[in-house]
Structure to design on (295 residues):
């Protein structure tokens, strides 16, 4: 194997491969969905915990699956972002693939418990979510290469994760959860947009036709700004029902920096900074919105 680990232990490399900085995108919808449900029924802690496990495991699974699929396809050879285990030779492709399926299995087991207790139809939702995660960059025709990654993120890490977290609490989906899912989902889309903007040249060279490759860097920058602003507006709009949702506006100053970077900078390190800032923004918005819905 290549020596690209910078002297890190195997455990540290696997933790890095799980991309812990992306896990806020899995925590955010559970916070918002659970808080939205709390306005209409009692809080059930163990259900919220299982929903969180499902969301986190799916995020880790898609990270490892993407690492494996892009690595074996040669897409990550000229990667500008975090080190990938497969492409860098730090782990055998089969091991990375096994890690992805292990994470999906954890998500499946936690989801199955919720389905048995709450509603067996949740099994269908879980199967769809795992399939979407696995086929993002895997399978014979990965849909990330068809420019559909952002749509999937909006649907599964926005609507499904947020509304699903609410549903397992009170066994229905309140409109507050739907509105909150739009805020969470748009900011999750912004994370993916800036990620793909960073890799637009290398993805194009490798034949990976992400949305950024298809619409170009200029329109991707505009889309990023629209997603960030739209996420903040969608979160604040919940104030029509829950006035406390206006707390979301306290996060607006955190959006200024990454929007400026994406609009003005081209170099990969700057876009990585914007990506990290966007992930932080999404989590802060989710916390503020959850508090606003809870009070």
């Amino acid at each position: 194997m290549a020596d690209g680990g910078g002297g890190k232990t195997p455990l540290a490399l696997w933790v890095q491969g799980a991309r812990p900085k992306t896990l806020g995108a899995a925590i955010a919808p559970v916070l918002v969905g659970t808080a939205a449900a709390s306005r209409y029924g009692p809080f059930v802690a163990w259900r919220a915990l299982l929903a969180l496990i499902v969301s986190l495991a799916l995020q880790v699974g898609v990270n490892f699956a993407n690492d494996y699929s892009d690595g074996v396809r040669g897409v990550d050879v000229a990667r500008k972002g975090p080190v990938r285990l497969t492409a860098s030779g730090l782990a055998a492709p089969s091991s990375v693939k096994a890690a992805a399926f292990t994470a999906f299995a954890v998500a499946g087991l936690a989801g199955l418990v919720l389905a048995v207790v709450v509603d067996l139809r949740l099994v269908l939702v879980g199967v769809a979510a795992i399939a979407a995660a696995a086929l993002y960059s895997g399978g014979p025709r990965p849909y990330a290469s068809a420019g559909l990654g952002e749509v999937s993120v909006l649907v599964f890490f926005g609507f499904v994760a947020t509304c699903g977290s609410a549903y397992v609490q009170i066994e229905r989906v309140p409109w507050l959860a739907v509105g909150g899912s739009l805020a969470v989902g748009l900011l999750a889309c912004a994370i993916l947009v800036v990620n793909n903007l960073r890799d637009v040249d290398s993805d194009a060279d490798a034949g990976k036709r992400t949305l950024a490759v298809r619409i170009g860097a200029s329109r991707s920058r505009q889309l990023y700004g629209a997603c960030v602003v739209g996420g903040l507006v969608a979160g604040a709009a919940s104030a029509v029902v829950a006035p406390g949702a206006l707390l979301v506006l306290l996060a607006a100053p955190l959006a200024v920096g990454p929007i400026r970077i994406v609009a003005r900078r081209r170099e990969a390190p700057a876009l990585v900074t914007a990506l990290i800032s966007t992930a932080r923004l999404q989590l802060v918005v989710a916390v503020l919105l959850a508090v606003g819905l809870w009070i």
